[in-house]
Input
Amino acid sequence: MTNTDKIILITGASSGIGAATARRLAGDGHHVVAGARRKDRLDELTRRIHADGGSAEAAELDVTDPSAMTAVVEAVLSRHGRLDVLVANAGVMLLSRLGALLVPEWDRMLDVNVRGLLHGVAAALPVFERQGSGHLVTVASVGAHEVVPTSAVYSATKFAAWAITEGLRQEARPGIRVTTVSPGVTDSELADHITDRYAQEAMRAYRAAVISADSIAAAISYAIGQPPDVDVNEIVIRPAGQRPPS
Ligand code: NDP
Output
């Protein structure tokens, strides 16, 4: 295996950062398995990658279902014999003040952002250990480093994602690499799912200055492209001049 022909599974690849990362990594010469729930979007993505000369396949996947996550990893192993990188990117950001008591949305963020990541670790880590190599790239957030009004639960899930990934770094055997990528405001569908009117309003000004999902994909590409003895542990990448929402 060279540094440009890895087998890479990306969760949340149907839009935004995940889709941009799939295109970038396929362009780098890797084989990409693009996972998410919206299979039509994944099929369109893989068509586009093939048209550009890249190698990719779509995998319908709900990361909240641990058996689905394991099944996708097993399918990757049976088709390709190995899994080199898991980009754990699937996430939701349903911002609201705690007093809005949107308990089902808190649960959704915990299910996707925390349990979904853990299901990825549970599926991929045994493979990485058997291989003696592997790379977990977790897409966390600047929300893993700061809390602002409306972000308490989202930030809690991203603090957790940071902690899980850092814990794996400390525990993992040599040969297994671990990267947390923490984006600031990035152009994607992420904020479209916010239902709380106060949070929608707060986000309007905050998200006026964005960087492209391709910028995050480039950071992920950089981490993956390093030689095997170089472990890029964390990248925080924001729009220039970004400040917390006021
Ligand atoms: P998008 O909403 O565009 O993408 C989110 C992706 O997650 C989609 O592909 C969606 O696919 C997938 N997803 C959601 N729920 C599930 C699920 N249950 N199972 C599998 N996939 C799921 O937003 P982004 O690209 O911005 O988000 C990607 C990551 O980046 C997230 O973890 C987010 O928290 C993080 N991030 C984003 C920032 C930003 O400003 N955009 C800033 C900081 C971090 P589908 O619905 O088809 O399943």
Notes: DSSP finds seven helices and seven strands in the chain. The mean pLDDT is 96. The helical segments are 16-27, 39-51, 66-80, 103-131, 152-171, 197-206, 213-224. Residues 11-18, 36-38, 41, 61-64, 89-93, 112, 139, 141, 183, 185-186, 188-190 surround NDP (CB under 6 Å).
